[in-house]
Design a protein that fits this description.
alpha/beta; Nucleotidyltransferase, domain 5; Ubiquitin-like (UB roll); homodimer
């Protein structure tokens, strides 16, 4: 009741008080309506009326106020704090709130229920950077590690046709006339079409008439689909004139954090441009589990679907503007993403991905039309999602295997993609086996006291002086630091271990003579940056023993994955001939430091190769030609999935890996040598 | 600007007058806005503001007033009369308006442009009966003349499945699990599904769980389509529990005038119920040409599409209520209709059907999903339109050929469907040839002074006393008459001819001694009913010499069609072994009378057979089994279309047929005998 008259409000409150009294007295008069309460928000000066028991976060959404729930409303992250200035509330949980904050009226919006008329102040939330700087991505022109013959076999092809207009003696329908000419001029038979193209067919043909030359049009055909290779070619657009010069298409990576779009010309096989932005779903949860929980809310799934489609559309508009193209000229889209992201993109119910035994609705969704999803390209353009292998090995990983070329090499290869989950694939041209290790979001900044994502203000690398224990660090954007991101956590952990600040088990040596080591609110901690060096100048940036323990668990889970995977096929980790590192985070991992903490196996550095964003590269590869699209389906089919939560060996290996670098030091000879040199 | 403040209105008028003056003086100041005018309507008390030159009919639409344009805005029918009470207008045409009417301010809304502020009175229009009495249709249980094996080969089939829920050791996705069970239990492989079903898959499976028995569901599969017989089966719905008892589907006839829906059970092959109503598009034009013209208006095509879908949805809701079923349980729809009706149903541009060389967009549209058209059945249900042969031989005719069984008989058969156009098919199991004769709308009541459609108040049959020339007539609904419908026109023409009131050329004998014959406003006429007998008691019901001439042209066109068709394959009309009469109008034609006027060829009555609504029967047949659906595609493919407007023989035969019954009396021996008996 936005904008209710004050008098009306007073009357309602009067009535409500009476009702409440009756309720409290145990009087249940039938027909009495559920109690409703008014909430006035500051500083936005909005007002809503909600039923008793409504969550404050839902009331904020109802008021149309932009508000992020980074953990999706689980009460875990503590980042949806508001101040209840007037009225009483019930709190489901107060974790993440200090006693002082509770006294000041702070509450977590996602854990607080309305049982009174309220006045609520919404403090500014930590801003989510709206857009990644895309210049960097655009500058890199990707090269494909695999060869594919895009010229003979593209997904979408254009054909220029000159057609004799109809007469009384040749009065075939427009569509059959087009079919006839495609057969005659290009030997393409039995094309089909959907309503959007048929609806404009008659006009387009007649508009295309050039004096005395008949109708001249470009037919855009989709040549079969992975679901049915022999499906008849489908007319997805018809344009007057000759447009065969280029055939635009896009490859998309839907990351949980970042979305990337590559603009491609299928006619030349060339990359044209790219754009990247944060997935707008972040406002409803930063990790997969938070989003799955958010999707369970009324209308939550549809909201998440609209958000990610909105992000993709924004990137498309950006590319269209920069390259002066018309979006309706984009005729195909391939999408790579983890299983949950693909479910949310298609608005498929993701609930059972989260719950044991972790079941997705489908691994390889059918191709859909762009219009069906609200994507702003040619309405009939096919949108193909790359196949998943299971709940936690998604299309981003099959894309990685495709673009890495490991599916066609004899070299025994380990492919890894480290993020919230570490996905690992082992194999070669003959066989592929994979698993997912739940590393947790530590490397992405969550569960680490001063953790943050790798954006401007994040410390991305740290070095520690072995004598003074004083750190030197590098900050993204060269600004005063705000926190520590994943790559810095790896180097910090390695440096602290090598310099003896922490021991094998991750415990801080409190006997060292440095003010950097101290007892903090959460136990022992190491100060990376003093408050006065930071942007806010309020709080020291630290790494606590609790953080270190979380990080060791994360790296331990991934290393245990390597061990179980190799053991399951009866080989030794040392037999691995190359390690390919994919994923957006991958390229920031310092191999030397990662080996020192036991995140990566100890082998010669030249065996490691960074591949960059293998997810979008895989989508790009599958977009370029039908053979590669068939190949990725085959890759998904032949990848054996090892469910670690059902594997006893995993727990054993995980426990052994909860040390720096590992219980079995013989597996890390280079680290052993280094420690010897350091005399530690 | 409904509801503008009066003062604002005055100001605008003041400004407008100034602008008009400037314009009149030849002053073209750049940036000056186009003049706008206010129109006040009575009796609805609505007001709109429109730019100069707007058609009054568009202004009425803008005001949201319900208003019919029976001829689609061509100025032909004269039934969109309004009275301009204040202000000046420009008239594009005044046909159909008498001098008196013009003096009184009458104008045709579709031919009158706004050049002033106006006050317009809209008199009540002739009501369009909203709904046909459907009891009659429902009472008739149709029987199919052709046998088809619906049990082995239906379009949509249901399968009951018991499925073991997933576990960590068997964690296949929901969709693949369903696929696996369909393969195991029913040997059905590689099913596919669209997003609407995938979106509810996970929930439905888990809701279906019965204690200790696992998941129990009914999968509804579409088994291939005519476009691709080998297409993988498509999952169009999934329901918890066993629903295999029946599989509901609907067959639809989209007539220009009437829409009919049959509710069918595919599991038993049984007809359940039917409903019929006028096509709501009638308000935008009564005949095909009027609708095509209406479709050219801005948004006109989409409006026509919504109207017919609205009518079908109303009929579906009526059937659902009466039979206590859930509309989402209806899993398939077949549609028969003429080429224009199918174009409008799918919102395909019909413009070029009207213009020489008469080119439809497509003869056999691809199957679409119900949701794509806004039909209120299962969203994924396939909606299949039966194939056309050309612009004027549509899916209603191929449906007729299918349901008549003529495509599988050795008997030389003539199939006719008489309406605005007479469509004629000649042939047998070996060959089929067809044509369309533009009979004009005379038999449907248009172009005949006292003509009307066959609804309550229409004279449907007439007998004339050969001595007194006094008529006896029968009225639909046994009420005082309002006009004459098609069947009565045939019997009236025959009776007038046999009794000598008119001669061979259709001229009225003004020397007979009866007050029924007289000179009217439009020339000689015969009075069928005196004003005092009629419902309005205002005007005599008559048949004029002009009407007779129109009717002779209509019957002449159809007979010429028979002649050209038989001649083109080198046979004689007398060789035809049976004449099958289809179409809604067909069943009201009196064969004896139709032969007497030369509408039907003179052959023994037992060779004629009425088939009723062959269009909906054909849709029903094609719905029941895949073999019949394939058959109707084959029928359309093998029907040779003869374009009469490109055939010289047609004009010749038409001229010969402009007599009663024909120039060549030897072709009508029974009529010759009758005339001899009558001594005329």
């Amino acid at each position: 009741m936005d904008g209710d008259h004050p008098l009306a409000t007073t009357l309602v409150i009067g009535l409500r008080h009476t009702l409440r009294k009756m309720k409290n007295a145990g009087t249940h008069a039938t027909g009495l309506q559920e109690a409703k309460y008014h909430i006035a928000f500051r500083p936005d000066a909005k007002m809503v009326t909600v039923p008793e028991g409504t969550l404050l976060s839902d009331a904020i959404a109802q008021a149309g106020i932009r508000f992020n729930l980074p953990c999706g409303g689980q009460g875990r992250c503590g980042r949806c704090k508001v101040v209840v200035e007037k009225g009483e509330v019930k709190r489901r949980g107060t974790s993440r709130l200090s006693t002082v904050e509770l006294e000041q009226g702070y509450a977590l919006a996602c854990q607080t229920m309305v049982y009174d008329d309220l006045q609520v102040f919404i403090p500014p939330q930590e801003a989510i950077l709206r857009r990644l700087p895309s210049e960097k991505a655009a500058a890199e022109i990707p090269t494909l590690p695999v060869e594919c013959d895009w010229q003979s076999n593209p997904i979408v092809q254009k054909f220029f046709l000159t057609i004799e207009p109809p007469s009384l003696s040749d009065n075939t329908t427009d569509f059959e006339r087009l079919q006839r000419e495609l057969a005659k001029q290009y030997n393409i038979r039995n094309i089909v079409a959907g309503l959007p193209v048929l609806r404009k067919l008659a006009r387009t043909l007649r508009e295309s008439e050039k004096e005395s030359q008949g109708w001249q049009v470009t037919a855009v055909l989709e040549m079969g689909s992975w679901l049915d290779e022999d499906a008849p070619p489908r007319l997805i657009d018809l344009r007057p004139g000759d447009h065969t010069g280029r055939t635009l298409a896009v490859a998309v990576d839907i990351g949980t954090t970042t979305n990337v779009v590559y603009l491609v010309d299928l006619a030349s096989g060339k990359f044209i441009d790219s754009a990247a932005a944060y997935n707008a779903q972040i406002s409803c949860g930063e990790d997969i589990i938070s989003r799955i929980l958010y999707a369970r809310k009324e209308g939550g799934l549809e909201h998440l679907q609209r958000l990610v489609v909105g992000t993709i559309n924004e990137l498309l508009h950006e590319l269209a503007e920069r390259n002066r193209i018309d979006l309706s000229e984009i005729y195909a889209m391939t999408v790579a993403g983890n299983t949950t992201m693909i479910h949310l993109f298609l608005a498929l119910d993701p609930s059972f991905i989260r719950l044991e035994p972790y079941i997705p609705t489908i691994n390889h969704p059918p191709p859909v039309r762009a219009a069906e999803l609200g994507i702003h390209i040619c309405p009939e353009a096919p949108v193909d999602c790359l196949p998943s292998v299971g709940a936690y090995v998604g299309g981003d990983i099959t894309a990685g295997v495709l673009s890495s070329g490991m599916f066609k090499t004899d070299t025994l290869t380990l492919f890894i993609d480290v993020g919230t989950n570490g996905e690992i694939v082992l194999g070669n041209a003959d066989w592929l086996i994979c698993c997912a290790c739940s590393a947790g979001p530590a490397f992405e900044g969550a569960g680490v006291h001063s953790g943050m994502r790798a954006t401007v203000g994040a410390i991305e690398e740290v070095w520690i002086n072995a004598q003074t224990y004083e750190p030197t660090y590098q900050v993204i954007g060269n600004v005063p630091p705000r926190g520590i991101c994943g790559s810095a956590m790896i180097s910090l952990l390695a440096e602290m271990f090598i310099t003896g600040i922490i021991d094998k088990s991750g415990r801080i040596n409190r006997h060292l003579n440095t003010p950097r080591i101290r007892m903090g609110e959460h136990g022992p901690e190491y100060v990376v940056a003093w408050a006065k060096e930071t942007r806010n100048q309020e709080e020291d940036i630290v790494l606590t023993e609790v953080d270190i323990s979380n990080l060791i668990r994360a790296k331990g889970a991934i290393y245990a994955g390597f061990s179980v995977l190799t053991a399951s096929v009866g080989i030794d980790l040392a037999d691995v001939e190359q390690v390919l590192i994919g994923g957006a985070f991958g390229k920031y991992i310092d191999v030397e430091k990662a080996i020192q903490i036991g995140l990566l196996p100890d082998m010669p550095w030249e065996r490691f190769k960074y591949l960059g964003n293998t997810s979008v590269l895989g989508a790009f590869t599958a977009l370029l030609c039908r053979d590669m699209r068939r190949e990725v389906v085959e890759i998904a089919r032949k990848m054996t999935y090892l469910e670690l939560s059902a594997d006893n060996r995993f727990m054993e290996q995980f426990t052994s890996a909860l040390f720096l670098p590992h219980t079995d030091m013989t597996a890390f000879p280079s680290v052993l040598r280094l420690l010897d040199q350091q005399g530690k």
